[in-house]
Give the backbone structure.
Amino acid sequence: MELDREEERALRGEKGEALASAYRILAAIGEATGAKKLVPVKWAHVSGVNYNTIGDAGVQFLDSFSREARVAIRTTVNPMGYDMNHPEGISEKFAEKQASIVRSYERMGVEPSFTCTPYDVFDMPRKGTQVSFAESNAAVFSNSLLGIKTNKESALSALASSVTGKAPLSDLRLDEGRNPNVKIQADFDFKSELDFGLLGYFAGKNVKGSSVALAGVDSLSRPQAKALSAGIGTSGSCGMFTLGNPKAKEKISFGKEEARKIKDELSTADDGDVITFGSPQLNIEELNTLANLTEGKKFKKRCMIFCSRAIHNQAVKIGLAGRLEKAGGEFMCDSCTCLTPYVSKENYDSVITSSVKAAYYMNSSNKVGVALKDMKTIVKEYTQ
C-alpha cells in the first residue's frame, strides 16, 4: 500500500508516537485487505467504550493513548456499560473503570454521544461520503440504506481513523466491493421487526462476503431496517445488504424452517426475570410504538428501556418518556442491553427481549438465558 509523504512521516513517528501507532494499524489493515492507498474519511464512530467489552487492557491502552492522541475528524462513540445517572447495582470497580474510559475519550476530543445508532441521533452525511464506523449495525445500516461508505470497522481501526482522518481504500469503500455475490431468497411472511432480525442473523451467518442481496423483501420501515442491520452485523463479517433480485453467483433460501432454527439457537428460555428493549438503542418511533402498546397497562416484571441520552431528552419533551414510565418502564441512557452489567447471572437467570443482537450477547457474554419474543408479544404477555 502506498503512503504519501505526510503519511510516511507520521508512520515513522515524526508527528508523535500516538499518530505513528494509528498509522501502523491502518497500514497493517491496508496490506491485509489489498488496499492501494489511504483515503480521507469525514467521521469516525468508535466502539470499545463499555468496560465489559475492552477490560483492563483496553482501559490502560486508552489512558496511555489519549495522553497524546487527539481526534482529527468528527468522532462519536458507542454506548458505555451503564447509565451514570442510575448506578444502582453497579460495582465500584466497574464504575471506576468506566469513568476512566470516558475520561480518555473525552481527553481525545470525541463527542460523548454514547449511542450505537448515530443515524437516529445526528444528521448523516450525503451519499458516497467515506466514514469509519465500528458499530456493526451502524455500518450495515449506513452502507445499505444511506449509501455512505464504510467497512465494518473494528474498535482499533475506527480509533486509528479518528486521529488520522484516513482509512484503507478497500472492500465496501470501493464500488466493486459493494456488489453482492450471494443472494438470499426470502420466502417468508414477515410479521414483526424480530422476523427481520432473524433474517439478518441468518444472512450474516451464511454469507462470507462483504455484501448480500435480499430478494423477497421489497421495502423496509426504519425499525425493520435497524433490526435487519443489527442481525447481519452480529453474526458475521457482512457489512451491507441490497434489496431486489439481482443475478448472483450463489443463491440461499430463507423460509420458515431457517427462521425457526435461528430463533431456537438464540431463544434459550421460555420465560425471563426481566424485560429489556433497546439493542440497538430505541429511537423516537420505536418508543412511540411501545408507548401506544402499553397505554393504560403496567409491566408485571422489571422493564429496562435503553436509548441514547439525546433520544431520551426528546422523549421527555414530547411526553413519551412519562407515558412509558407510567407503564413501569425504566430508562437507561448512554448504554445498551448488550454486555451491560445491569443484566448478569448474579442478578437474573434469564431475560426477555425482542432483539436478536441482545439475545446473542446475553447468551454468549452475559451468560443468562434468553426468551426472544417480538415487542407486541412481550407487551401482551407481560403487562396487565
About this structure: Residues 267-382 form a domain with the Aconitase; domain 3 fold (CATH 3.30.499.10). The mean pLDDT is 97. The two ends are 62 Å apart (CA to CA). DSSP finds 15 helices and 14 strands in the chain.
